[in-house]
Amino acid sequence: MRLIIYTGKGGTGKTVTSCATGLKLARRGHRTLVLSADPAHTLADAFMMPEVAYEPRQITDNLVAQQIDPVTEMSKQYNTILSYMASVFSAKGIDETLAYEIAMLPGMTQLFSLLKIQEVSKTGEFDAVVLDMPASGEALRYLYFPKLVGSIGRKLTGLAGLFSGFAKVFQPLAKIPAPSRSVIQSEMDLIDRLDLLADIIRDSNATSLRLVANPDTFSIENAKRALMSASLYGINVDMAVVNKIMAGSSDAYYDRWASFQHGKVEEAKANFYPLPVKEVQLYATELRGMEMLAKHGDQLFGDEDPAKVFYRGQPYVFEKEDAATIRMTVQVPFSEKDDFAIERYGDSLTVSVKTAAGKIVNIVPLPVATAGMKLAKARLQDKQLLVLFEK
């Protein structure tokens, strides 16, 4: 199954670009599903079909659209664990409503939207899935969560196990409920699903992240952060799309805007090199409805298949320099010398990179060959973090 994820700042045209890509895929014979977790029900607006909602809706031949309800998905797949964690806080005297809010881990609604991909992949019903990510695609930062819980948490029976350990110690005094077998089983099932989801999204042959921006500083900077995050998490980015580019005009005011925007397009090409950058002019009419979406798809891809992998990079490379040295290269564009920190924990490496929007953290699994080696040094060179392991 081919997975194409569009991410970018709100208002850049992610939804219409996702829909146009889905329509183009369907017309080339791919059984295609377009998914969106946008709470504004934007798929219905883009296709001009108000019936597009939480149940899959046939749009045209080979094309199905579905609006994901993150709260419903979370209720179906996380409710057992959430109820237990809330009961722990309630036992400490916290109001039940507030207890549920505290028990919610940050970003979980977006993460459960992503879990829909794993569910669809298992059915084998579609050849391609196009995901319209919520603005900025912040859920991608939680894809390192399975590795964190998987490598450390499993040894403690995960999060529920941590609660269980505390519960057994303090239950006589604080009346904290111990987790039931169903709670622990639910959590193990969830971690397994997150592992499978992470494997799908990090498979560069199956999954591509595509950046969407407008020719302005804010959306281009947002797309740069998404590119850094994706590189750090091992997710292949194969394209950038710049929408709503104004044409030149005889009017001085509009011509200045057009000139400014064309300068931003050139800036985007330099920033995102070697990714291909697709340029789309600002349309004379509103971009919605099947006819306009088809036109947008043709503008983006021409005669090319949208399912093609337009660029394939290598986020992590391990090279053996000699019998005593292994070098790891991590792609970290748009970072400076003092922006990163590295720590090794057993068979994994934690890489933290500071950005204007906060810290990005990933856990990189290390090859067995580094087991008897120490982390010797690390340096930043040409948008790459070079890490040396020595015996």
From TrEMBL:
It is an enzyme of class 3 (hydrolase). Residues 325-389 form the ArsA HSP20-like domain. Residues 1-300 form the ArsA/GET3 Anion-transporting ATPase-like domain. InterPro entries: ArsA/GET3_ATPase-like, ArsA_HSP20-like, ATPase_ArsA/GET3, HSP20-like_chaperone, P-loop_NTPase. Its EC number is 3.6.3.16. Keywords: ATP-binding, Hydrolase, Nucleotide-binding. One of its GO terms (molecular function) is ATP hydrolysis activity. It comes from the Archaea. Belongs to the arsA ATPase family. NCBIfam families: GET3_arsA_TRC40 (TIGR00345). This is Arsenite efflux ATP-binding protein ArsA.
